[in-house]
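QA checklist item 7 of 12: single-chain prediction sanity check.
[x] sequence parsed
[x] length recorded as 455
[x] structure emitted
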Amino acid sequence: MKNDFENGKVSVNIIMQALPLMAAQFVHLLYNVVDRIYIGHMPVNGSLALTGVGLAFPITTLTAAFTNLFAYGGMPLFAMARGAGKHERAEKILSQTAGMLVYSSLILSVVFFLFRRQILYLFGASDASFVFADAYLRIYLFGTLFSMIATGLNGFINAQGYPQAGMMTIVIGAVINLILDPVLIFGLNMGVSGAALATLISQIVSAVWAVSFFFSKRSEYRIRTELMRPDPGILKETIPLGTAGFIMQGTNSLVQIICNVTLRAYGGDLYVGIMTVLNSVREILQLPANSISQGGQPVLSYNFGARRHSRVKEGIRFITIAGLIYTAAAWALVLLFPSQLMGIFTEDTAMIEAGRSSMILYFFGFVFMSFQSGGQVTFTAMNCSKRAIFFSLFRKVIIVVPLTLLLPRLGFGTDGVFLAEPVSNVLGGLACFITMYLTVYRKLPADGIEGTGLI
């Protein structure tokens, strides 16, 4: 049976992509979230260790940004080429992406390792929290290559219509991580170093699985070493498109840094730890919505490449409505059980009590995130790179960063840091979606006509 997205109901195609992707991402999330849960419940210095791991977030997020730069830039073009029957071009895009993931990961791991002390203090570490941040990071960085390869190539597995195989890339490594975490953290008394080592081993296994898929009979395309050398022609297409995902993660890293520095100034290590918990809860709650959007991306790209624009519109509608329904339910969950959600990650009563009100404030207006993701994935799927880049910058850099710096100084204190997020969700989400609706959705031509005017 041909693995394409041109037949059947669009909503079913998206769901069939999203469900395995959701399962894979949930298991992948366990890589980091389970580490934080175990670390937060360490009998000695658990809260401080959790703060230290939180200080490493901007570095891991920046690594994800470079993964997005090449992988998210290549995946839509790969899907379009496949939909248009240009198989040689699709294979070249795949190989180019693999090559850039390797080169960039090696550079990043060396730079971060050599300058990790200076970087961590710049990101808001205190003398007490640095000890735990450094113990985690100096091991975790050895997995940069494997993490970027596994995450970056997984989308190309999904884009060929094999989401179950893509799911296994994550499941295999995550199961190993789940087994190793308690053994290394508590059994061998390695603490945060044990959490980092468990993650490293898991990432190696995931990367090996992902690469092996492209040399199996199931894959229509191969990673060819002769095509991995940087090709300026391909990179001129993939990098601008991937820049949106890069900026989205890069600005997340910037926001995390500014939040940590500001919270340490106004609330100390306790509030840096609270932000670590809030980021963890947000990652969990955002996962289904992100899976729906990401599951829809190859479906939108494929049908756009095949000039089935009515199906593209149907896909946009489904992604948006499903996202709204889910985020509304997630928002209600936060309002009803903030203390219980905090308690998953820590037993520190001071952190739970202070974090309860912070969580309610931070997640206010969470439903508007569905507008941001719906608009962003549409821009990316149809190669509208400039608009995708702008709205990645708009929400984080133009709204969140200034508010994070300004509101605490206007008398809001630590609450000002948490308030910046919901304001950006409302303003950024609506601006992104309305622009997408007016410039893309309404201008899609009839089926069979090329939609070049959208780019």
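[x] summary fact logged: Residues 10-454 form one domain.
[ ] second reviewer sign-off
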